[in-house]
C-alpha cells in the first residue's frame, strides 16, 4: 500500500507535500510522479510545482480554489501514484573529457583516493546517476550515486570562475556546472553539452527523475567535434531507457 | 517622436523591470524573481488599465530620471521616493497623465524602500520563460538582463482601449499611507517548525527583530534573539516560498524574497503571509519587525480581502474575471456585490466616485459592453 504523504503549511499559498525524510530513489519517484499527475491535470489553481529530494512544494492561487479542496485532491492523487505513473526513466549520456586543463583536479582526486587517474575516470563514468532535483542555480543537477571511494573535500579556496560544463566532485557528491560561476568543487572534466540554454523551450537539459551517465571522450578532437555539432544544431542527445528490473539504481546517501 | 517609448536619463540606485514573476520554471532551478511588493505593482497596473501582470519599473531608494517621449498615462505606487514630474510632486496610488517631453525625477526615499512605475500599455521587453522580470544574478529577463542604465530606451505597449480611459485612484482608506519603521508581520508556522525548540518559537513571536544591512531582492537577514534548533539546522533541501523564514545554524532568521533560489537546505520556522510581504519589501536596514502568529485561515482571508480591493478598482477587471474568482471574492468583500449584479448604473457610479476631480485626456466615461 502506498504510504500517504504528510501535508505542511508553506504560507497561505503553499503546501509542502512530504513523502518521507531521507534521500531515497523510491521517495524521489513519488515526488516526480505526483508532479507529473498534477501537471497533466492542468488545474487552474496550480501556480508552480517545486520538486526536491523527498517533497513537492505546491504553490496555488487561493482565489481559484480553497486550500481544503486542494489538500483532498493531493491526497487522492498521492494514493494512486505508485501504480498510475510508470513513466520510463531516461538515461542521458553526458560526453565528458576528463583530465588536462578541463579537469585540473583529476590528479588530486586520484591521489586523495589512492587510485590512478584511469581508475578515477572508470569509477566516475560507471554508474547511472540519479537526478534528485534541479536547484542552487538554473539547470544545476543534484546527483546521487557517486562511488564513495571518490569522495574528495572541496577546495580550500574556491575558484572565481569555473567554466560552464565543468564536472566536479565535492565531498560525496558529483555535479555539473550549468553556467560559468564561482565554485569550490574539485574539477575532473568538462562536457560540451549545454545544461541550461534560454533559447530552448525547456531551458534545462535535465529534470528531477532523470538518470545521467558520463561517457569518457578520448581526446580534445572528439570534444571539439561534439561542440561543433551543438553549435550547428546537429548534435543528437543519446538517450536510453533505464531497465528498472536490473537493480543498478544508485545507492542513496544521506 | 511618435513611437511610444521612454528614455532613462539617470538610472537611480537600482531600477529594474519586473512583473509578478517567472512561475513554472522553478523545477529547472530558475528563480521566480518579480516585484518585491506584488500588491504595489499590481495596483500600479490596475490604476492605468493594464493587466495585473504587466511589466513595471521597480525603483529602489533613489528613483531614476525618465523622459517620456510621448503622452502617457502612468501611476506610481509603493514607497515614497519623492517622485516628481517636471519638478512637481506626483500623487502616489493615482493615475496621472503626463505630456510628451515630460521628465520624471526622484529626490530619494522618504518612506518605504521600493516604488513602482506603471505605464499604460506596459513596458514591452521580451518575454523570457513566461515573464518579463529581470533576474540580475544570471543576467536574463527585463531589459538586457540588467538594471536600467542611462541612455536605455524602453518601448511601451499599446494601452487597452477598454480600460485605459478610466482614470483611477486607489480609495484612500485602502492606501498603505505610511510604512514607517516598525512593522507587525503576520506569520504562518511551518513547514519545519518542529526543527525548533518550543522556547525558540515563543522567542520568535515575543521579540523584536531588526533588519540588517544584508537585505536585498534575494532575502532579508535579521538580527535579534537567536533561535535554537532541535537537532540539526540543515534539512534535506526542499522548495522555498516567497516569505519563507529560514534559520541557519547561527540562529539568525532570513526572510526569503523574490530572487531566492527555488530550493534551500535550512529549516524554515514559518512563512510571512502574502498580504504582509509588501511590508517586508518596504522595510529597510534598522527597521523593527515584530512577528505575530496567525492561522492559515486568517492568512487566506487577509489575502482574499486584499485581492478584492484590486478587483474593486476597476469594474472591467472584475467583469472579465473567471466565475470562480467572482464567487470567491464576492463572498469576501461586500464592495464587489454591485459588480456581481452587473447593474450598469451602479457600475458607473462606483467608478466615477473614485475620480479625484482631475482632467484626463483619456476621458472618464465607462463603456457599457
Characterize this entry briefly:
With 254 residues, chain A is of the alpha+beta class.
List strands and helices in order, with pairings.
The complex is a heterodimer of chains A (254) and B (369).
Chain A: E1 6-9, E2 14-18, H1 25-41, E3 46-51, E4 55-60, H2 67-78, H3 81-84, E5 90-98, H4 106-112, H5 117-124, E6 129-134, E7 141-144, E8 159-162, E9 166-170, E10 173-176, E11 181-183, E12 186-190, E13 211-216, H6 220-231, E14 239-241
Parallel strand pairs in A: 5-13
Antiparallel strand pairs in A: 1-2, 2-4, 3-4, 5-12, 5-14, 6-7, 6-13, 8-11, 9-10, 9-12
Chain B: E1 5-10, E2 16-18, H1 38-47, E3 56-60, E4 65-68, E5 72-80, E6 83-85, E7 88-89, E8 95-98, E9 103-106, E10 111-119, E11 153-155, E12 182-189, H2 198-206, E13 208-215, E14 219-223, E15 234-239, E16 244-246, E17 254-256, E18 263-266, E19 268-272, H3 277-281, E20 288-293, H4 296-312, H5 315-320, H6 323-332, H7 337-341, H8 344-353
Parallel strand pairs in B: 12-20
Antiparallel strand pairs in B: 1-4, 1-11, 2-3, 3-10, 4-9, 5-8, 5-10, 6-7, 6-9, 12-19, 13-14, 13-20, 14-17, 15-18, 16-17, 16-19
Question: Which features does this protein show?
Answer:
heterodimer, A: 254 residues, alpha+beta, Gyrase A, domain 2, Cyclophilin, 8-stranded mixed sheet, 4-stranded antiparallel sheet, 6 helices, 14 strands, 24% helix, disordered C terminus, B: 369 residues, 7-stranded mixed β-barrel, 6-stranded antiparallel sheet, 8 helices, globular
Give a structural overview.
The complex is a heterodimer of chains A (254) and B (369). With 254 residues, chain A is of the alpha+beta class. In chain A, 42% of the residues are buried. Chain A is elongated and about 55 Å long. In chain A, the strands form three sheets. In chain A, strands 5, 6, 7, 9, 10, 12, 13 and 14 form an eight-stranded mixed beta sheet that branches. In chain A, strands 1-2-4-3 form a four-stranded antiparallel beta sheet, with helices on one face. In chain A, a hairpin with a 3-residue loop joins strand 3 (46-51) and strand 4 (55-60). Chain A folds into two domains: 6-84, Gyrase A, domain 2 (2-Layer Sandwich); 90-241, Beta Barrel (Cyclophilin). In chain A, 24% of the residues lie in helices and 28% in strands. The relative contact order of chain B is 0.15. The two termini of chain B are 34 Å apart. Chain B folds into three domains: 5-170, no CATH class; 182-297, Cyclophilin (Beta Barrel), CATH 2.40.100.10; 314-353, no CATH class. Chain B is α+β, with helices and mostly antiparallel strands and 369 residues long. Chain B has a seven-stranded mixed β-barrel. Chain B has a six-stranded antiparallel beta sheet with strand order 7-6-9-4-1-11, with no helix packed on it. In chain B, strands 2-3-10-5-8 form a five-stranded antiparallel beta sheet. Chain B is globular and about 60 Å long. Chain B contains eight helices and 20 strands. Chains A and B meet through strand 2, strand 3 and strand 4 of A and strand 15, strand 19, helix 4 and helix 6 of B.
Amino acid at each position: 500500500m502506498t504510504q500517504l504523504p504528510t501535508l505542511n503549511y508553506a504560507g497561505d499559498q503553499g503546501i509542502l507535500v512530504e513523502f518521507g525524510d531521507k534521500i531515497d530513489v523510491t521517495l524521489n519517484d513519488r515526488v516526480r510522479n505526483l508532479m507529473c499527475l498534477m501537471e497533466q491535470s492542468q488545474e487552474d489553481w496550480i501556480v508552480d510545482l517545486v520538486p526536491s529530494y523527498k517533497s513537492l512544494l505546491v504553490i496555488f492561487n487561493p482565489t481559484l480554489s480553497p486550500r481544503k479542496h486542494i489538500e483532498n485532491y493531493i491526497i487522492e492523487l498521492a494514493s494512486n501514484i505508485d501504480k498510475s505513473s510508470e513513466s520510463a526513466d531516461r538515461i542521458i549520456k553526458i560526453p565528458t573529457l576528463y583530465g588536462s586543463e578541463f579537469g585540473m583536479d583529476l590528479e588530486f582526486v586520484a591521489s586523495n583516493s589512492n587510485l590512478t587517474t584511469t581508475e578515477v575516470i572508470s569509477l566516475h563514468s560507471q554508474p547511472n546517476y540519479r537526478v534528485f532535483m534541479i536547484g542552487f542555480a538554473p539547470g544545476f543537477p543534484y546527483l546521487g550515486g557517486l562511488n564513495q571511494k571518490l569522495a574528495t573535500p572541496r577546495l580550500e579556496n574556491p575558484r572565481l570562475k569555473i567554466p560552464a560544463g565543468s564536472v566536479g566532485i565535492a565531498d560525496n557528491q558529483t555535479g555539473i556546472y550549468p553556467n560559468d560561476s564561482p565554485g569550490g568543487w574539485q574539477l575532473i572534466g568538462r562536457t560540451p553539452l549545454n545544461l541550461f540554454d534560454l533559447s530552448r523551450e525547456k531551458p534545462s537539459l535535465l529534470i528531477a527523475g532523470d538518470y545521467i551517465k558520463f561517457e569518457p571522450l578520448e581526446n580534445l578532437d572528439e570534444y571539439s567535434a561534439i561542440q561543433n555539432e551543438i553549435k550547428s544544431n546537429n548534435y543528437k542527445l543519446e538517450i536510453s531507457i533505464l531497465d528498472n528490473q536490473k537493480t543498478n539504481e544508485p545507492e542513496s546517501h544521506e | 517622436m511618435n513611437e511610444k517609448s521612454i528614455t532613462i536619463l539617470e538610472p537611480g540606485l537600482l531600477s529594474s523591470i519586473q512583473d509578478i514573476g517567472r512561475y513554472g520554471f522553478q523545477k529547472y532551478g530558475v528563480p521566480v524573481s518579480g516585484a518585491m511588493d506584488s500588491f504595489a505593482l499590481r495596483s500600479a497596473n490596475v490604476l492605468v488599465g493594464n493587466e495585473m501582470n504587466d511589466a513595471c519599473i521597480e525603483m529602489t531608494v533613489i528613483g531614476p530620471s525618465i523622459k517620456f517621449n510621448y503622452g502617457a498615462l502612468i501611476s506610481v505606487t509603493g514607497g515614497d521616493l519623492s517622485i516628481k514630474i517636471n519638478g512637481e510632486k506626483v500623487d502616489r496610488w493615482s493615475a496621472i497623465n503626463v505630456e510628451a517631453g515630460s521628465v520624471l525625477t526622484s529626490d530619494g526615499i522618504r518612506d518605504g524602500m521600493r516604488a513602482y512605475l506603471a505605464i499604460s500599455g506596459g513596458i514591452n521587453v521580451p518575454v523570457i520563460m513566461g515573464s518579463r522580470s529581470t533576474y540580475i544574478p544570471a543576467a536574463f529577463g527585463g531589459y538586457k538582463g540588467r538594471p536600467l542604465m542611462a541612455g536605455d530606451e524602453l518601448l511601451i505597449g499599446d494601452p487597452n482601449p477598454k480600460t485605459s480611459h478610466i482614470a483611477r485612484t486607489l480609495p484612500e482608506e485602502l492606501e498603505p499611507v505610511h510604512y514607517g519603521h516598525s512593522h507587525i508581520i503576520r506569520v504562518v508556522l511551518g513547514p519545519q517548525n518542529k526543527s525548533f525548540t518550543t522556547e525558540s518559537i515563543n522567542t520568535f513571536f515575543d521579540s523584536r527583530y531588526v533588519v540588517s544591512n544584508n537585505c536585498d531582492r534575494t532575502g532579508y537577514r535579521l538580527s535579534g534573539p537567536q533561535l535554537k534548533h532541535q537537532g540539526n539546522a540543515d534539512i534535506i533541501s526542499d522548495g522555498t516560498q516567497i516569505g519563507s523564514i529560514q534559520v541557519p545554524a547561527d540562529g539568525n532568521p532570513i526572510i526569503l524574497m523574490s530572487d531566492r533560489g527555488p530550493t534551500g537546505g535550512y529549516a524554515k520556522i514559518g512563512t510571512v503571509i502574502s498580504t504582509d510581504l509588501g511590508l517586508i519589501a518596504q522595510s529597510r536596514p534598522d527597521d523593527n519587525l515584530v512577528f505575530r502568529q496567525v492561522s492559515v485561515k486568517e492568512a487566506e482571508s487577509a489575502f482574499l480581502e486584499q485581492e478584492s480591493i484590486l478587483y474593486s478598482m476597476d469594474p472591467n477587471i472584475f467583469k472579465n474575471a473567471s466565475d470562480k474568482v467572482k464567487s470567491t471574492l464576492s463572498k469576501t468583500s461586500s464592495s464587489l456585490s454591485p459588480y456581481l449584479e452587473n447593474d450598469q448604473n451602479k457600475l458607473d457610479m462606483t467608478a466615477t466616485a473614485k475620480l479625484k476631480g482631475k482632467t484626463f485626456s483619456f476621458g472618464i466615461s465607462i463603456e457599457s459592453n
